[in-house]
Amino acid sequence: IDILQLDQYEADSIERMIFKAQDKCEDTIQVKGVLQMEIVPDLHEYRTGSPYILAMMEQLNSLCIKRNRLYKENINIFGVRSYVVVAPPSSVNEILKKMHENFAHTTIWKLEQIIAQTAYIHNLKTVSRQFQCVQCNLAASPAARQARKLPIRSSMIGFELHIDLCFFPTAQIDTEKFKM
What we know:
Layout: H1 8-24, H2 26-37, H3 43-46, H4 51-58, E1 63-66, E2 69-75, E3 81-87, H5 92-102, H6 108-118, E4 119-121, H7 124-130, H8 134-139, E5 170-173, E6 176-179
Parallel strand pairs: 3-4
Antiparallel strand pairs: 1-2, 2-3, 5-6
């Protein structure tokens, strides 16, 4: 049993969230339309689209539609096919946040492999590096300033003395007092 695996309820809730986002995303609807019509568009037809559209059109051969949902087909080195749901850009932050919280606020770079098994996210590494969790940021230890470095010879007894003064001391030689 893989410890770092989503239980079925959480996986289903994430898929439902992605399905709702797919229904609302115009780019995903456009990609599904291209797949349903079985046309292969030229680069000049979609080059002005969003980065998501460009990525989907470049990977058109590995995309498929099942039950009116957009999936990406993955084939491993043994020839086993697996299908992951394609997450539109509007749902990416919600997915990252939910997975991050489900796995006890584990760092995102550790969750990237698990997320990749659940859903296909365009530019997962870039998006995950931009993800910020408020609770994790508040719980992190503060960045302490480094103490200033003193030369070694100032720490040798009787060699030199360096001190920081907050006031000017009074000096006395014999009976004479001097303000420095």
